[in-house]
Amino acid sequence: MSVAKLIVQNFRNLATKSISLHPELNFILGDNGSGKSSLLEAIFFIGHGKSFRTSKIEHLACYNEDVFTVSVKDNNDLQLGLSKDIRLGITNIKINGDRHTRLSDLASNIAVQIITPESFKLFFGGPKERRRFIDLGMFHVKQDFSHQWREFSRVLKQRNACIRSGTDKAILSYWSTVFCELSVKVAHVRQTYVESLIEELRVWLALLLPELVDLVNVQYLQGWPQAKELSEILDKNFEREKSYGYSLYGAHKFDVKFLLGKQVIDTQLSRGQQKLFLLALTFAQAKLISRVNRVKPILLIDDIGAELDVNSRLSLARAINHLDCQVIITAIEENVLAPFISLFEENSGSNKEDKYKMFHVKQGDVVEK
Ligand SMILES: Nc1ncnc2c1ncn2[C@@H]1O[C@H](COP(=O)(O)OP(=O)(O)OP(=O)(O)O)[C@@H](O)[C@H]1O
């Protein structure tokens, strides 16, 4: 889906109840503290059931309110709603008015990715963000994978429980065998996905960081040493796993390493280049998701001006022009958007409405310009 209408109630400082968005490109302008990130957070919330900037869900409710709601509608009468009652701890999920219990039901209708000025630090930091990123793509692109992943997670849980409880060796051995079989299957599906992502990444790097395309090297790490049998590794690390109390190797421990030559990207690229790299990767994933033709991806780019010079912004505008996504971009100052606006006005003839919408946020009030 792309969001034609966003409706929020008691979400952070957002006073505006309903906003009609452009299906392709939207610019949100506003001073510091006006509510730009809160607007993106509301859209992220309905796609993921959580925030991208806090793990505490109660922070999302407007001060002194217990219940907050976000709903979105597309142009084909699909309506998604998610509300939280933080006092009673109740989550309400609705799809076209019908109640659902699983967030994944909601998530299969909407694919939201976000880039903030902090994203690249998180992404190139620990493996958690990279795993989350890949998982989102897999969820939308390899739809049969969800079932396999649920099964794997169930077995991982059982195996971890056995490790922790110091259970009978025969029982642990049973769960380890199933765990190894599933790990190999999961790792294989994931590897094929990562390979297609890398291929697509090169296309977007050619637009955003052309000087680096030939130097970039991406390695998929399956979660245990590549050339070894997982069962062998588990046997060797039995005592270590016992002392940690959980599975140290397996398909859940996968990672993707981004290298420039032989060095990891974050030690080689400037902050602006890292941001462009992550944008290229996010665009690549969006492209793979849109090709499946189930949902139109939504890309949120918070504070687009941060770290990027005017040439980088122009390359970014050209790249966005090639995307089949709904894009929502925030900025503090209008002049930051100049390269985007001139490019899109050029392409849309006299009527800017064909190509984008511009909004102003002031103290939580969102007004179309
Ligand atoms: N739960 C809440 N209820 C009401 N207001 C909130 C809540 N949480 C944060 N705020 C306020 O909402 C305002 C908007 O914050 P937001 O982060 O969306 O601003 P922003 O426009 O993205 O600013 P910046 O450009 O500085 O990043 C801030 O003034 C913040 O103090």
Automatic annotation (TrEMBL):
NCBIfam families: recf. It comes from Colwellia asteriadis. The keyword Chaperone does not apply. It comes from the Bacteria. The RecF protein is involved in DNA metabolism; it is required for DNA replication and normal SOS inducibility. RecF binds preferentially to single-stranded, linear DNA. It also seems to bind ATP. It is found in: Cytoplasm. This is DNA replication and repair protein RecF. ATP binds at G30, D31, N32, G33, S34, G35, K36, S37. Keywords: ATP-binding, Cytoplasm, DNA damage, DNA repair, DNA replication, DNA-binding, Nucleotide-binding, SOS response. Residues 3-338 form the RecF/RecN/SMC N-terminal domain. Belongs to the RecF family.
